[in-house]
Structure formats: structure tokens, C-alpha cells
Design a protein that fits this description.
By secondary structure, the chain is an all-alpha fold. The protein has one domain. The protein contains eleven helices and no strands. The longest helix has 29 residues. It is globular and about 55 Å long.
Length: 243
């Protein structure tokens, strides 16, 4: 149960503002929420099944201490990735010649390949050694995060600035990455000089990815654009009715 909760929570945090969440929000402006969520579910099960299979294999052939060090580094990378944010290209938000559910599933599966949440799933599966529980947790995490983006995105954009969500998620990852490295690295490597160098380098990377290279609030722009379209449709409908 603990592995499910761990995977669920980390994937929810990783997915906030992620490319695939942005894609799900964009798809929700074209299709029904139920159809989008069904497509997300189908794509996530297949995509993350591949991830946990790879993570389980790596966990069986690589020494556990090396995995923990790699996991710590990965969390730091995920933190910087989260601070920078993601964006979706027009080609990723295109229609396929299928029904809504299949269209969303295909687009979501392609976008998720090599994405932060897939790599996060591989890391958790390798570190935890319980692939099936990781799959359940990561799949639920994707549904929760994308559901929040699709259904509660408008509320979040009005009450919580997107940059706060990104920075909160990024800090969580970097904290756990730092903690993992502190536990896994040999004590001989942990001294005042290396700690000072580590935090100086981390501060520089946070400034680079969190301020200089960050993508501006695309999630809210998608949500607000969807609301504007809905408002225009309602306005046109009222005008036609009055006429």
C-alpha cells in the first residue's frame, strides 16, 4: 500500500504543469471530459506498464545503493524540469482520424514517451522493487493530476498562480533528491566543502531553470482560452435566442 501511495503522490506532483497535463487540458476543450479521461487511462496503463517493467528489470541488475544514488539525482532533475515547466506544440494537439477516446489515447501515449512522469515511474519502480504496485499508484496519480487540470484548472488559475504550483512541486522533488543523496552517498563524500559546492551549484541551476528558462503560464492560458470559447458560445446562443 505504501508503494501505491508513494507512486501516486510523486506522479501527481510531477504531472502538475507537465506536457501531458497540458495536452489533456487542451483535449478537454475539444472532447467530453469522460472521453478524455478514458483516453488518458488507456494510454497511461500501457505507457507506465512499459516503465515499471523497465524499472523492475533495472532494479534486479543494478546494486541497490547505485539505484538510490541515481534516484536522488533523478529527483533533482525532475525538480529542475518542473521549475522550467513544459509546453505543448501544435502538432501534439492535433486530431487523428479516430474517435475521441482513441485520439486522446494515441496523442497522450506519444506525448508521455520519455516524459517526466514516465521517467519518474521508472525511477520509483527500480527503487521500490514492486512494479505492479507502482503501476497502480502511477496510473491513479495521472488520473488525479489530469482530472485536477481538466476539472479544477479554472479555479486554480483564478486562486493559485501557476508559478506557485511549479515552484512548490519543484522544491518537493529537490528536497527528496537531496535527502536521497545524503543517505545514499558515502560519508567520506559529505563534508563542508562538498555541501557548500552542492548548494551553490543547485542555487545556480534553480535560477537558470526556474527563472531564466522557465515557460510562462501555459496551463492557465489553455484553461482561460477554453473558458473564453465557452463564454462566446453562450453569448451567441443567447443572442440567437433573443432574435
Amino acid at each position: 500500500m505504501g508503494e501505491i501511495i508513494k507512486a501516486l503522490l510523486f506522479v501527481v506532483v510531477a504531472e502538475m504543469g507537465d506536457k501531458t497535463q497540458l495536452l489533456a487540458m487542451a483535449m478537454a476543450s475539444k472532447y467530453k471530459v469522460r472521453e478524455v479521461m478514458m483516453g488518458v487511462l488507456a494510454a497511461t496503463i500501457l505507457n507506465h506498464a512499459l516503465a515499471v517493467a523497465l524499472g523492475g528489470y533495472l532494479g534486479s541488475v543494478i546494486p541497490m545503493n547505485a539505484i538510490k544514488i541515481a534516484a536522488g539525482v533523478s529527483f533533482l532533475v525532475f525538480g529542475l524540469w518542473t521549475l522550467r515547466g513544459d509546453k505543448i506544440d501544435d502538432e501534439e494537439d492535433k486530431k487523428f482520424k479516430f474517435g475521441p477516446v482513441v485520439t486522446v489515447a494515441i496523442a497522450f501515449f506519444i506525448a508521455e514517451m520519455g516524459d517526466k512522469t514516465q521517467l519518474m515511474t521508472i525511477t520509483i519502480a527500480a527503487d521500490g522493487g514492486k512494479p505492479m504496485l507502482t503501476l497502480i499508484g502511477s496510473t491513479c496519480g495521472m488520473l488525479v493530476a489530469d482530472g485536477i487540470g481538466i476539472i479544477g484548472g479554472a479555479w486554480l488559475c483564478k486562486h493559485v498562480p501557476e508559478r506557485y504550483i511549479k515552484w512548490g512541486a519543484g522544491v518537493v522533488f529537490m528536497f527528496f533528491g537531496t535527502l536521497s543523496l545524503y543517505i545514499a552517498l558515502p560519508s567520506s563524500m559529505i563534508n563542508l566543502i562538498t555541501i557548500a559546492a552542492y548548494f551553490a551549484a543547485t542555487a545556480g541551476l534553480i535560477y537558470l531553470f526556474g527563472i531564466k528558462l522557465t515557460y510562462k503560464e501555459q496551463a492557465c492560458s489553455i484553461v482561460l482560452k477554453k473558458e473564453d470559447v465557452a463564454a462566446d458560445i453562450n453569448t451567441e446562443g443567447r443572442e440567437s435566442y433573443n432574435q
